Amino acid sequence: MTKTELLELIENGESSGVELKRVDVRPKQLAKESVALANFQAA
Question: What are the tens digits of pLDDT across the range 1-43?
C-alpha cells in the first residue's frame, strides 16, 4: 500500500473493511478487533 492509498482510506473514514483506532488503544482490545476483522474478510 502506498502512502497515498493509506491517506485515502483515512480520509474516507470507517467502513465494513476499515476501522480507525486511537493511538492509546489497549493491546488486548486491538487483538480482539484484529481477529474480528480477519474473520469478516475470510467469510
Answer: 899 998 998 999 998 888 887 788 788 988 998 898 888 866 5
Burial of residue 37 (number of CB atoms within 10 Å: 0-12, 13-18, 19+): middle
Q: Taking the CA of residue 43 as centre, how many other CA atoms within 13 Å lie in the half-sphere pointing to its CB? A: 8
In terms of pTM, does the model score above 0.90? Answer: no
Distance CA 28, CA 42 (A): 21
Rounded Cα–Cα distance for residues 42 and 10 (Å): 23
Q: Note whether 17 and 26 are within 8 A (CB).
A: no
